[in-house]
């Protein structure tokens, strides 16, 4: 549930259930979720838009009209937030986790956040985090 808190700018347990989160994602998260992710990782809005594969123009239109992100982009944003939470758990510190996510990683051949645009990339990042958590050299 902490991943949902990142997207809604509530770092504590929001008391949300998985069912209510699912419904919110289906209806579409507020466009501010993009800014919350960027702030959390120290990235620009454009960097986050690149990871969720939303064009800056589409984001601007939705922001100005008050429209939500929609199902596809909301799901992608939630996927990123889940990886952030996992990294925070593995490293035991939000700052260390966030630094790791935006720094080049030799095992991945890229900055971890850059791989979060696909499910395959998410699995690669999760695998490396698992290896770090259990002390496996990679």
From TrEMBL:
InterPro entries: Antitox_Xre, Xre-like_HTH, Xre/MbcA/ParS-like_toxin-bd
Protein origin, superkingdom: Bacteria
Domain Antitoxin Xre/MbcA/ParS-like toxin-binding span(s) in chain numbering: 87-135
Origin organism lineage: Bacteria, Pseudomonadati, Pseudomonadota, Gammaproteobacteria, Chromatiales
Protein name (record): Uncharacterized protein
Coiled-coil residues: none
GO molecular function terms noted in the UniProt entry: DNA binding
Domain Antitoxin Xre-like helix-turn-helix intervals: 23-82
